[in-house]
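Example (one chain per record):
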Amino acid sequence: MDEQEKTLEMMLEEVEGIIASIQQRDISLEDSFSLYQQGVETLKLCSGRIDAVEKKLLVLNEDGQLEELS
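Predicted structure:
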């Protein structure tokens, strides 16, 4: 499954798994750094998705018209 098909929840679960892996005592420095990079990239994707959803939120103004929240 590519990154575009993953839900926000799936990506956050992936980050939780990465954190758990990094916290293992027997992980090498190189592996922990690689996992760290993967986690940062995944969090960037999550942030982008959240920003996109926030921009789509609409509210009714006093005149009953829809306008985007900023």
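Caption: DSSP finds two helices and two strands in the chain.
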